[in-house]
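Posting this for the archive.
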Amino acid sequence: MADNYIKRILEANVYDVAVETPLSPAPFLTERLGNDILIKREDEQPVYSFKCRGAYNCISKKTPEQLAKGVVTASAGNHAQGVALSAQHLGIKATIVMPRTTPEIKVASVKARGGKVVLHGDTFDEAFVHSQKLVEEKGMTYIHPYDDPDVIAGQGTIAMEMLRQHTGDVHAIFVPVGGGGIAAGIAAYVKYLRPEIKVIAVESTESACLAAAMKAGRRVTLPHVGIFADGVAVAQIGKHTWQVCKDHIDEVITVTPDELCAAIKDIFDDTRSVAEPAGALGIAGLKKYVERTGIKGKTLMAIESGANMNFDRLRYVSEMAEVGEGREVLMAVTIPEKPGSFQAFCNVLGRRPITEFNYRFGKTEQAQIYAGVKVPDGGKPELLAELEAKGYAVVDLSDNEISKYHIRHMVGGHAPESVADEIVYRFEFPERPGALLTFLKTLGKRWNISMFHYRNHGAANGRVLVAMQVPTGEKKELKSYLEEVAYPFWEETDNPAYQLFLK
């Protein structure tokens, strides 16, 4: 299968709109990880993403008859910009169907390049269905964002550049995966010319469709796709891309949103560029691979695939980066409720920087502190052990979802005794104007809401923490009701963060 793409890649027409991007050294990551780290800077393309390669190659190979009524595509943003730029260069009309959750910076960029934007649905798959209606109704030619041989070949030119820019030994190339276009293009070229080089796919845990397909041995559709890494928020790997990836991808690594935030910071430190979440997948996967294998002294390459980041999302990325790197410990600590306790606790922390410190006076003989502390790489076990050795009861909340997104903004007192039969749920819903009001209307008014927390932190999905007073006999009824709500939810009544600070 890889052989079929070599001629296509060599003949790909991309440089009318794309540029050859640099393969930049990453000195800080190189020193920290003990390997030679190189980053392929696809964020330096005219549309700040690699997608213009495949889009232009595909459109340029269409006949005049196919282009007469214009082109249409569905895209979360980067492919959309590539299609708009390509259509503008070729003087044809382009209609772009984008999910309503697409970052505004990508929508504005498409419009600036003359593309007509149609916002529809919350995910790529919903936008795709609508784009197919436009094909049927108006006779436009569809340009697939990843599942087309000419698109795959266009993305494969990245590998052609990388192997020309670095001719020495390479242990592995880490490639982001959404629908699989860039992964298939790079795997096809690399495995044909340099089969000894590992091609490792990296996916978000929120949209790991290739990992699911590899496990099942066939293409599968994910029941739910998270959209923090909106550029790879795809529920099913493509047909054409699967045919290449299943045989030529050596491994699939999945990374969490927190790990992506940490990788965005790493890329910034080394290149002073701000990758979007999908653009940081390669580095996040590379770091995880090095940690797992303990490999040293090898050349590792990762693709920074895009930099179309909404500015307001930076606060969320900054907030989560240290947690994702394991360099911030969020914890609940029990101390005596008496004078001098704070100072004694701070003495144990020493000169470690404190990022969070929340406390409210209680009536008991013990106080609960919610604290965030910065630690060096691998320093969390040492801190926790030191506190426990001094007699403190400590609960590590660093990976606790409601701790990271809610409790740190809510600490201030427990519920009064009059609040009985309280059940706590955590919800997520696509973030867009009016989303919170829609959520509240969906939740209904059947049970009394005794606690509510929502914070717009610039992420693509909104997070809500809700407590409701539900008599024991109505719990099954509540769960049945919630299952009819179209948002994913988790019960958190037994979560230690809630039990310690809010119950």
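The CA atoms of residues 169 and 299 lie 7 Å apart. Residues 149-165 form the longest helix (17 residues).
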